[in-house]
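User: Show me a protein chain along with its predicted structure.
Assistant: Here is one chain, sequence first, then structure tokens.
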Amino acid sequence: MTRVKRGTTSNKKRARTLKYTKGFKWGRKSKERAAKEALLHAWTHAFQGRKEKKRNYRQLWQVQINAASRTQNLPYSKFMAGLKKENIKLNRKILADLAQNEPDVFEKIAKKI
């Protein structure tokens, strides 16, 4: 039977793991066992972070809309209720952008409410 050298597979596997840990501190970037453990945590936090980012942006847009709508003497809740009643379908991201960059357009929307 011919001899089978198995170094290439192991090396590939190790290299693939270590490729993802580039930039980590201490042994977690170079030692395979520590790198695996670090990646387990890192990828978990990355997933949670992507969800959290959406939450944070929505909160920011709400604050920006509230600030702009209060200049028109409308608190946030009344403003959003008025939008729904008037059937104006603009999401918070767009409204916040309008409030910041196009105050005239935002004022027209507020007047309609």
